[in-house]
Amino acid sequence: MIKWMKRTLYLMSGTLRGAFFLLIILFVIGIVYYTQQLVRQLRSESRDIVEFYALTIQRIATADVDAKALGWAFENITQRINFPLILTQADGEPASWIGLDLPEESRSPEVIREVKRIIEHMSAENPPVPIMYKDTVINYLYYGDSKNIVQLSMLPYIALGTMGLLVLLAFIGFSSIKKSEQRFIWVGMAKETAHQLGTPISSLMGWVEILRSGELKNADMQMVVSDIQTDISRLEKVAARFSQIGSQAELKIQELQPIFCDIVAYFRRRLPQAGKEIKITEIHHDTPPVAVNRDLFEWSIENLIKNSIEAVKQKKGIIILETGSLEGKKVYINVRDNGIGITAKRKHDIFKPGYSTKKRGWGLGLSLAKRIIEEYHGGRLYVYESRPNEGTTMRIEV
């Protein structure tokens, strides 16, 4: 069921990416709509203020106040506003202004032309407010957006640009990570295949040379045939392992102890070639039968033991293989060594494809073991305990 779900997610990855971008677009649209609502509200408040000022000036004008009083009213009543404001004559000629980056005291033709250009821009955004004297328009008030409104209007574009940049960086980073992971997996699987096939093939080639020499006696022939059969069985097991990667693995309920006995016997034959004095010990408590795929399960255990052998740097090493029962009819398998250990910040990195502390390693063993245990057997593989320079315990729960 879990594998089917993961395969479905993989096949739907394009749809999921489309849904992700659709959510981003909807999010940006929401920001734009909300921001525009705020801008309209602030512009409405600005117009209310301008209309109030216009009404005040109109009252002053109605009271037959002279031009100086009118100018004073414009300068003092409007000096506290935070948006640009221009007062013009009825014919559109600028009379006074505030909030512009222009010197008000200057009445040069260049300044007047610039003010008129700003008036055109303001009138396109906000209709001017007329100042009436009786039934006649004597002035117009033009106003623009405050700095807050301008900044708020730019917010959607800033958000869109920032989000687009983050999405681009995330896409590039994700693509790079996936390509690196795929490269590590392909290289690792190719080298793992060569490594798995190398030992029995080399052994068979040696037996072929011995047979060609004709020096074998009849009494030794049976032993040679037995060893050749062992190497052929190993090749068949390797082929079975790789054939089941990527397909639905068949699980059978069986005892674990015979599986571990075969694995340990295989490594004990090979340990003298490692150049280290390593002792493998088995501790088996009572455990119920477990549903496993023997070929793949053996592969994951072998990878854990290989990792423990490589972690042992001293001359004498100890690897303990322990099995036992957990609550809920689960079984645990501990692979403990007295190697160099793992630092806390590397406990999760060791399962990533391509991660390896060896100069010539390809970093696929633990990643492959974890996938076999968790994806094919529905269990867990994790670092149960580790101390630098003291050793590591890897635990499987199925």
Write structural notes for this entry.
The protein is of the alpha+beta class. Helix 2 (13-62) runs antiparallel to helix 5, helix 5 (147-213) runs antiparallel to helix 6 (218-244) and helix 8 (294-311) runs antiparallel to helix 9 (365-376). The strands form three sheets. The chain has a five-stranded mixed beta sheet with strand order 6-8-9-11-10. The protein has a four-stranded antiparallel beta sheet with strand order 2-1-4-3, with helices on both faces. Strands 5-7 form a two-stranded antiparallel ribbon. The protein has helices spanning 2-11, 13-62, 67-77, 109-125, 147-213, 218-244, 257-270, 294-311, 365-376, and strands at 85-89, 94-98, 129-133, 136-143, 252-254, 277-284, 290-292, 316-326, 330-337, 380-387, 391-397. The protein has three domains: 2-145, Beta-Lactamase (2-Layer Sandwich), CATH 3.30.450.20; 150-238; 246-397, Heat Shock Protein 90. The radius of gyration is 41 Å and the shape is rod-shaped. It has nine helices and eleven strands. 57% of the residues lie in helices and 18% in strands.
Secondary structure topology:
Blueprint: H1 2-11, H2 13-62, H3 67-77, E1 85-89, E2 94-98, H4 109-125, E3 129-133, E4 136-143, H5 147-213, H6 218-244, E5 252-254, H7 257-270, E6 277-284, E7 290-292, H8 294-311, E8 316-326, E9 330-337, H9 365-376, E10 380-387, E11 391-397
Parallel strand pairs: 6-8
Antiparallel strand pairs: 1-2, 1-4, 3-4, 5-7, 8-9, 9-11, 10-11
